[in-house]
Write a structure and sequence with these properties.
The complex is a heterodimer of chains A (688) and B (59). Chain A is mainly alpha-helical and 688 residues long. Chain A has one domain. Chain A has a two-stranded antiparallel ribbon. The longest helix of chain A is centred in the last third of the chain and has 40 residues. The radius of gyration of chain A is 25 Å and the shape is globular. With 59 residues, chain B is mainly α. Chain B has a domain of 37 residues. Chain B has 3 helices and no strands. Classes of the chains: A mainly alpha (688), B mainly alpha (59).
């Protein structure tokens, strides 16, 4: 009877989910409500978790709850700490959910709400969740070893090196692109720039509190920091209205980029307790709080989706970024669907905390579904905006023109009539001079979130406060990623250089610290600066590059996972990793090819370089701009080289792995696994 | 009923402290027991050094 009831309940969940997704996919002619997205995605996740992840756990991986985990065997109270699974879920979710699942879906909304939403849901269920789950499990079975170490042990030494180079390369592009998102959100915005600037002394105050006054009291310091941040958001309005202070915080793109580069260098070099750690604590609390508030806001406000299911930009002529749905939608949305970076987290701290192997299902697969849900909410927030407002904010000046009137003419020509007064009014209501040409996704998402939040609390009166709270929220954890990524990148550069210069390995040396910080900050700073100067807004070039890098890392993780499954003798189930891997390799290689060789200058780096050179040769570029244009030409060629390098990386790894697979399948080679030996858990009968 | 709610709130608070890292030293001290252990301050600094020497925040 219970079994029958359970079957009926799950059938009902599946039908409701299918109905909601079917409605948003097929409904035409009248607006869809945002609640359909929440219900459709939520029901799909429930069914996927209940059935697909159970299949992965039982049949494919054979999780063994009687086997002691590294947290139990190696428990030292520091690195390896047996921790409640819900706490680990919270840790893991806070670690994987960064700006990606918010910004990616917002950018992909230019295709309409449908392609991005379907990819978010299907990608997470069949790809991202699988990757995170299996890598977490494989790391659990190997004493919490990292992805690079597992690749070296299970696939080969070259694979380990390729994984490490991929991680460093993705780190550089990731840091550049997230910094660009912050710069584009804060340029010419004294309110936003002031609020974010204030997070630096606030974080330092928290750092001093937790270092000297109350060591390790994270909750107390975070509560103080949160109150101060809210005061900074409110005070930002006074700064923006002050004739004395507003000019101080009204910064151009290049000036903000320079400030972010200096900040990144300082954050990487100063002690971690002073700036990075307190900012991270504060950002984690605010991140989780805002995500929950956004979910509640969507349910309470039930926003109507204004964006059509598909826009005319599915043809590749998109104003936010150029390129057709395939492959660019699947590259633009990485975090939220499949993100290679998650494999680093799944093989980092998380496997050192799990009490039972069976908890890997909840933490690995479950947290990916939660991140995907964040992506769906970001899609709802972006698509709840009038399309004309969305495009006006996200279009670079190089395409629509710098003034509201020029933008109105261009955007109205696409079939989205724009009254210039609408944009003026919206900008005023959120406390900004203008919202035009704020590429990068963060401002349009903030406007969408502000509308949802103000629909719940405060109404139009608080729209400006909510907008700047949302901007602060996005910028705060983007800077956390910047701090933490720069620091880790510094360690990786130190490790690489120490092979030639052993003294560089000494992480306490100031010479080594300053030199390697300079190298990593210089690398991402260069890409950031080129993005700021890019006439097409920078996001058009850098975000796809970041997506390609991230998906290549996911391909690396899935190649490693496929190899291990073959070694485990699970050949009949190898499709669970092989299919998402094949899809990602196809997407990334197609995307790389198009970004390098496409004849449309807005898509192909080389075509754009040629087009600009031709303009110079024909005298269409003013004398004063020739040097800048030549720099853009060089940057396009550099981007083409970087993209080609990424493609070669994945091809080299595939070749290495394919040889390995052939030898295993034909029995030419014994395939020993590098798993730790079985030890029976002492907690088999209950939780610690 | 009140006791149940109070217990649930206590558990929630404990988990929140564990999640945030606030309870990390208490967990460590309980693990070490009466043995030799580092001070709260040293433990805090060590844990930060470990955490931020590997990728711990995603995009």
């Amino acid at each position: 009877m219970n079994r029958l009831l359970s079957s009926l309940v799950w059938l009902a969940v599946a039908l409701v989910g299918a109905g909601a997704l079917g409605a948003i996919a097929l409904w035409r002619g009248e607006p869809v409500n945002g609640v359909f997205f929440v219900v459709g995605a939520g029901c799909t996740y429930l069914v996927a978790y209940r059935f697909y992840s159970a299949f992965l756990a039982a049949r494919v991986l054979s999780l063994d709850a009687t086997r002691a985990t590294p947290a139990e065997r190696l428990d030292d109270g520091r690195d390896f700490v047996p921790t409640n699974r819900w706490v680990v879920l919270g840790h893991h979710f806070a670690a994987i959910a960064g700006p990606g699942p918010l910004v990616g879906p917002t950018l992909a909304a230019q295709f309409g709400y449908l392609p991005g939403t379907l990819w978010l849901v299907a990608g997470a269920v069949l790809g991202g969740g699988v990757q995170d789950f299996v890598i977490l499990f494989f790391s659990l079975r190997r004493d919490g070893r990292s992805l690079g170490q597992i690749a070296r042990d299970e696939v080969g030494r070259r694979a380990g090196l390729l994984a490490m180079v991929s991680v460093l390369a993705i780190m550089v592009i990731l840091l550049a692109v997230v910094a660009l998102v912050v710069v584009n959100a804060l340029k010419h915005s004294p309110w936003g720039a002031f609020t974010l600037a204030m997070t630096i002394p606030i974080a330092m105050l928290m750092g001093l509190y937790m270092r000297f006054w109350r060591p390790g009291r994270v909750m107390e310091a975070s509560a103080i920091g949160f109150v101060l941040i809210l005061l900074a958001v409110v005070a930002g309005q006074w700064v923006a209205l002050s004739p004395d202070w507003a000019p101080v915080f009204t910064l151009t793109g290049p000036a903000l980029a320079a400030a972010v580069i200096v900040y990144g260098f300082a954050a990487s070099a100063v002690p971690v307790w002073l700036l990075l750690a307190p900012r991270d604590y504060l950002s984690a609390f605010i991140k989780v709080g805002v995500v929950l508030a956004l979910a509640a806001g969507i349910v309470l406000v039930r926003p109507t989706i204004q964006m059509p299911a598909l826009t005319r930009f599915v043809d590749g002529s998109g104003p936010v970024f150029a390129g057709t749905i395939f492959p660019f939608c699947f590259i633009t949305i990485a975090c939220g669907a499949v993100s290679g970076f998650h494999a680093l987290i799944s093989s980092g701290t998380t496997p050192k905390l799990l009490v039972r192997e069976s908890d890997a299902r909840l933490v690995g697969y479950g947290s990916m579904l939660m991140e995907s849900f964040v992506g769906v909410m970001a899609m709802v927030a972006a698509c709840a905006l009038e399309p004309v407002v969305y495009f006006a904010i996200n279009r670079p000046a190089g395409i629509v023109g710098a003034t509201t009137e020029e933008a109105a003419t261009t955007i109205s020509g696409w079939g989205f009539p724009l009254d210039p007064a609408t944009m003026h009014q919206l900008a005023r209501s959120v406390g900004e001079e203008t919202l035009l040409n704020r590429t990068g996704g963060a401002p349009s998402l903030a406007v969408g979130m502000a509308h949802i939040f103000s629909g719940t609390i405060g109404g139009e009166r608080l729209l400006g406060i909510w907008y700047h709270f949302a901007i602060m929220f996005e910028a705060l954890f983007i800077l956390t990623v910047l701090d933490a990524g720069t620091r880790v990148g510094r360690f990786m550069v130190q490790e690489l250089l120490s092979r030639a210069f052993p003294r560089m390995a000494h992480t306490g040396s100031w010479t080594s610290t300053l030199l390697t910080s300079g190298i990593i900050v210089g690398a991402w700073g260069y890409f950031l600066y080129q993005g700021v100067l890019d006439p097409l807004g920078g996001i058009n070039s850098l975000w796809p590059l970041f997506g390609i890098a991230n998906q290549i890392l996911a391909s690396v993780a899935l190649v490693v996972a496929t190899t291990i499954l073959l070694k485990m003798g699970r050949t009949r189930y190898v499709w669970v990793t092989l299919l998402p891997m094949a899809w990602l390799v196809t997407v990334t290689l197609t995307g790389s090819w198009q970004k390098v060789f496409h004849e449309n200058p807005r898509i192909g780096f080389l075509a754009q370089a040629r087009s600009l050179e031709q303009q110079i040769a024909e005298g269409h570029v003013p004398e004063a701009k020739i040097a800048d244009t030549r720099r853009v030409v060089f940057n396009n060629r550099l981007d083409a080289a970087v993209t080609g390098f990424f493609a070669l990386l994945i091809l080299a790894l595939l070749l290495e792995a394919a040889l390995q697979w052939y030898r295993i399948l034909t029995g030419q080679r014994t395939a020993p696994l590098s798993e730790s030996p079985y030890v029976r858990t002492k907690w088999a009968e209950g939780s610690p | 009923m009140t006791a149940r709610v109070r217990s649930a709130l206590r558990t929630l608070w404990r988990r929140l402290r564990e999640w945030s890292g606030d309870a990390a030293y208490d967990v460590y001290a309980a693990r070490v027991g009466g043995g030799e252990r580092v001070s709260r301050e040293v433990f805090y600094l060590e844990s930060l050094r470990r955490r931020y020497s590997r990728p711990n925040r995603c995009c």
